[in-house]
Amino acid sequence: MRLEQLRICGLRCLTDVSLALDPAINVFVGDNGAGKTSVLEAAFLLSHARSFRSGAREALVQRGMAQLALFAEVHHRDEPGVERLGLGRSGARWEARINGEAASIGELVQACAVVCFEPGSHALIAGPAEERRRYLDWGVFHVEQDFLAQWRRCQRALKQRNSLLRAGGVPSDDLFEPWELELSQAAELIDLQRRAYLDRLRPCLEVGMTALLPELGAMELRYRRGWSDEQPLVDHLAAQRGRDQARGHTSLGPHRADWTLSFERAPLREHLSRGQEKLAALACVLAQATLYAQEHGDWPVVCLDDLASELDQSHQAAVVAQLQDVHAQVLLTGTELPPALQATAARVFHVEQGQMTRLL
């Protein structure tokens, strides 16, 4: 897929920006703080309904403005015309539209696929499990039609059980059991879908890691579902109630799942340098994009934030060449045009104080 038009209103320092994007490589150059990353953030928001940047959600909306709004015209390969997507935020609520009609956030995210490598991406390797679950679940969402319904079912049951745990006193088994059964049933389905997705992703990861980190040797992918395989989750939850009441939350379940990578010559995460963590994270992002393309016949949009400061020149050139070979649309930022792109046809925009000027 590709973004043909992108309009951004009220996102951080971007008051009202309209961009006609190239189907191949688009580069946004300018000083730090000029608003380059916010362009990539806008594309990512349409695909995830959340930002890849840390900080309060309220910081997304430009100071002094009541709301932010994003609009895009999206072209999908082998489909005529474009699909018009819109995402707005006023107060605490997101609102989505597709071709002018109200849509759910899930429908919007289904229609727009964007992956992003940015300075915080190393958290995918070295950060908390939440980052890896988000990565995993975004991939599962795009291949399993009922994943979102099961995920919501799981979240509802988890919320109800946690409320009972914090209620004080000793709630009766009759109150816990329906929600524990509901949580367990949804969890088993989610676990199967996550495992199946990782099985399909593994070959893409192996290729990517070999290309970017050949010095580390063979890769191993491990998955932990969040509870022991010895018995069903519903039995674990019943046995764990007392301890969970003391903690005030549910300590076992799919919300505790995680996956990790290790290498023949770096069996522990601590053995990786920060540069190797970044390359491993980049390989994960590109592997997910590759699998998406295999499943859908269409590459997602690939965002690369501040590429020159994150990768050395040889790795920059390798990544750009790979994305050109598969004809992916790329949105890339930097304080100047990266050396890997100086001999490449690209649409270049200069960004200054939230304003965009096309240079090439």
Describe this structure in words.
With 360 residues, the chain is α/β, with parallel strands linked by helices. The protein has a domain at 1-113 and 300-360: P-loop containing nucleotide triphosphate hydrolases (Rossmann fold, 3-Layer(aba) Sandwich), CATH 3.40.50. Helix content is 42%, strand content 23%. The protein has helices spanning 36-48, 105-111, 123-126, 129-141, 147-165, 173-212, 233-247, 274-296, 307-310, 313-325, and strands spanning 2-11, 14-20, 25-29, 67-75, 83-90, 93-98, 101-103, 114-117, 219-224, 258-263, 301-304, 330-334, 347-352, 355-358. The strands form 3 sheets. It has a 6-stranded antiparallel sheet, covered by helices on one side. A 6-stranded mixed sheet has the order 8-11-12-3-13-14, with helices on both faces. Strands 9-10 form a two-stranded antiparallel ribbon. β4 and β5 (83-90) form a beta hairpin. α4 crosses α6 (173-212), α6 packs across α7 (233-247) and α6 (173-212) packs across α8 (274-296). The two termini are 23 Å apart. Residues 3-337 form the RecF/RecN/SMC N-terminal domain.
What is the CA-based Rg, rounded?
22 Å
CATH level-4 homologous superfamily of the domain at 1-113 and 300-360: P-loop containing nucleotide triphosphate hydrolases
Poorly predicted sequence stretches spanning 5 or more consecutive residues: none
| Side-by-side strand order of the widest sheet | 2-1-4-5-6-7
**Main structural class:** alpha/beta
Determine the number of helices (DSSP H or I, runs of at least 4 residues). 10
What is the CATH C-level name of the domain at 1-113 and 300-360? Alpha Beta
User: What is the terminal separation in angstroms?
Assistant: 23 Å
The total count of strands amounts to: 14
Average pLDDT works out at 95
Task: Estimate the helix proportion, in percent.
Answer: 40-55%
Strand content: 15-25%
Shape: globular
Tell me which CATH architecture of the domain at 1-113 and 300-360 applies here.
3-Layer(aba) Sandwich
The biggest sheet amounts to: 6 strands, antiparallel
Topology order in helix (H) and strand (E) letters: EEEHEEEEHEHHHHEHEHEHHEEE
According to CATH, the fold-level topology of the domain at 1-113 and 300-360 is Rossmann fold
